[in-house]
Amino acid sequence: MLARVLPLCAITLAWATPVPAAPFDLDRVAAGATWVMHFDMDAARESIVMQRAWERALKIHPAVEQMMRMGAGMMGMDLRKDLRDVTAYGLDTDKRNGVMIVRVKANRQMLEKMVEKAPDHETMEHRKYTLHAWTHKGWKGRAGEKVVGTFYRDDVMVFSRKPERVKAAIDVLDGEEKPAAEDGPLGGRVRPGSIIVARAAAVDPGTKCPVLRQGRSFRVAIGENEGSSFYRAKLDMASSEAAGQTEDVVEGMEALGRLRFGDDAAAMKLIDGVKTKTEGSTCMIVWDAPAEEVWAVVAKMADHWEQKRKEWMRSQGKRGGDRGGSGCKDCDDGCPMKKRGGEKDDRRLRDDEF
Predict the structure, then answer these.
(1) Strand locations in the chain, DSSP E?
(2) Of 61, 143, 200, 234, which residue is least crowded by CB atoms under 10 Å?
(3) Is there a contact between 251 and 271 (Cβ–Cβ < 8 Å)?
(4) Rounded distance between C-alpha atoms, residue 347 and residue 354, angstroms
(5) 131-137: long-range contacts (C-beta < 8 A, 24 or more apart)?
(6) What phi-psi label fits residue 144: left (phi over 0), alpha (psi between -120 and 50 degrees) or beta?
(7) 280, part of any domain
């Protein structure tokens, strides 16, 4: 059960009362790491776009609130208010060898009792820390693999698939081993308000992304600061030709956006805000827009998609919130879906940008 915390912590987008943001901290990352990804839940809570997206989700799907409360009881933590951030990194490009550090206020005693009941559970010691290992059967295509996790502190958990990786991560957190250098390939300024930070000094040769296949390193930041949404990407490509092709890809995506939203002035303003520049083998992408304007466009698109979904459901004779699959079969007024409520009605691009 404890293993389910991993994906939930990484992807859950739920917001409660804002708390001071906890920005990306390279001191948690081991020296020699080739990539790092950081998700800042505190920053997400403070984002206008994210707050309103969550409010809209609750309005359309009111059952989500109850599901979140149930999940909080089962997991020993309420990710809406207890999750602070998640940092993942690896010493090579194989993400299966990565380490994940989760900062969250959790019911430690409850979670440790749960994991003790997991299949093939065993413990091992590393100084004052107890590591738990168990077989997680819920991973599609990876059944039977071990998960290793420990509480570094009551509010910090460390996970990996190998005990030596967890032990090494603890050594970095304890100051026994050196962290990644601020002036190294993963270091440097982090933009205030960054919700997602991703940096790589090497690219997985097996990546499915055609652009990154030609890349040598990259830096990405997405977030919102002082009412302005932003996106930054800096890609170091294998050649100047590859950098130019990357710029062409971005411009192609902009062209598709213009074809789709050409009659929507608000959407076009956001699309026109994308700026790209190539310098040698480096391609840089910058985008900024007022968060209020971003949300207005997102809300309008969501209204359109929701209306299309309702029309499709009616055409299929579906009821309630069913989104596909086998669908609802005809039933009487006692349909459980009905009881749930049914359908609810030219700037310079500088290195310090990245």
Answers:
(1) 35-40, 83-90, 99-104, 122-126, 129-135, 146-153, 156-160, 194-200, 215-225, 228-237, 275-279, 282-290
(2) 143
(3) no
(4) 15
(5) 131/163, 131/166, 131/167, 132/2, 133/163, 134/2, 134/3, 136/3
(6) left
(7) no
Q: And the tokens for 288? A: 């900024």
Cα–Cα distances (Å) from 323 to 117, 196, 326, 327, 347, in that order, read 35, 29, 9, 7, 44
* Residue 280: other Cβ atoms inside 10 A: 10
Q: For residue 242, is it within any domain?
A: no
Containing H/E element for 47?
none
The answer to whether the predicted template modeling score (pTM) of the entire model surpasses 0.85 is no
- Domain with 28 in it: 1-37+66-181
User: Average of pLDDT values for 54-72?
Assistant: 85
Can you read off the two tokens belonging to residue 44? 């997400």
What letter does residue 64 receive in the DSSP assignment?
H
Instruction: Tell me the pLDDT tens digit for each residue of 255-291.
Output: 999 999 989 999 999 999 999 999 999 999 999 999 9
Cα–Cα distance between 119 and 43 in angstroms, integer? 36
* Amino acid (one-letter) located at 323: R
98 within domain boundaries: yes
228-237 and 146-153: which strand pairing?
A: unpaired
* Contact in structure between 243 and 235 (CB atoms under 8 Å): yes
In a domain, 340, yes or no: no
Quick one: average pLDDT of 132-137? 87
| CB-CB neighbours of 252 under 10 Å | 10
Scanning the structure block, which residue is given the tokens 């002082």?
226
Could you say which DSSP state residue 205 is in?
T
